[in-house]
Amino acid sequence: MTTADPISGIFAALADPTRRAIVARLAEGEATVNELAAPFPISMQAISKHLNVLEKAGLIVRTREAQWRRCRIQPEPLRDVASWVAQYQRLWEERYDSLGTYLDDLQKEKP
After folding, report:
1. Which helix (H) or strand (E) segment is 31 a member of?
2. Which of 10, 61, 89, 90 is most enclosed, with most CB atoms within 10 A?
3. Which domains does the chain have, with CATH numbers?
4. Which strands sit side by side in the sheet containing 60-65, from one edge to the other?
């Protein structure tokens, strides 16, 4: 996956529900590839492709111990996404406040 910036790569990686589920599982702790694949009715090859996308986005790291490949989450990219989204929190809060004021005005106008 080639992206213009890291945030785009992270959003692209998280656009797939299987990859989001893998990230959620890894937020609980490290897991082997087999453990990550167990809940999904897809091939190991498909899981490997999902893991490659997550790894290229910097969201996970894979290590090899004997015959096992373990994965763990890399939280820093998620923090970058959260910071980006937080920029818009004030805008949302202002709009909710405006909506609240509008609804209060409507209630006052009722006979």
Report:
1. strand 31-32
2. 10
3. 6-109 (1.10.10.10)
4. 31-32, 68-73, 60-65
